Amino acid sequence: MGSAVVEAGVGPHAAFGRESMAVGASAWVNGEVADGIDVFVRGSGADIFPYQGAQAPFADVLASGGAGVRWTSTYLDGLVLGAEGMVEYEQRTGPSAAQLVVLTAGMPVAEQAFEGLWVYTDVQLGLAVPLYPGAPAPFFGYAELPLGIAWQVAPWLVVVGEGGLYLPLSGGYGAIAAAFRL
Description:
10 strands; ten-stranded antiparallel β-barrel; about 75% strand; mainly beta
């Protein structure tokens, strides 16, 4: 983050799965607590619509929120590697109602393509533990597979575009966001 110690971002996203699609928004705040160590919180909400038939808005909503810690370090020139851990709560309403606690471990990797332009990924493995009666066994596996581009427009503004695997709908997602740094 350069000389900044706090980053806050927000943006819309859309997801497309086998049987349904979702539209929503996400937000996050990162704070640097020591050199190379950040704490972060993030949250998102999405309204899910089946491809067949009409459905009232907000009849099937997926909302989540979580917090974690991330360590990063620069290797070579323009290559950043790290490790992170997060705990998150997810709740879905509607016909596929569910509540989950998700524990994830990730490996963020970013490469500077040009001055002010970064390409990144953050492969995350997770354990999802259902909290509702009659739930299936806990799930362990890929929690998220993103690929993104971050463009630092100004020292205080970053524009982000990201896409990847979206497990709640067994499909993909795309998102854009703006992040402000202080």
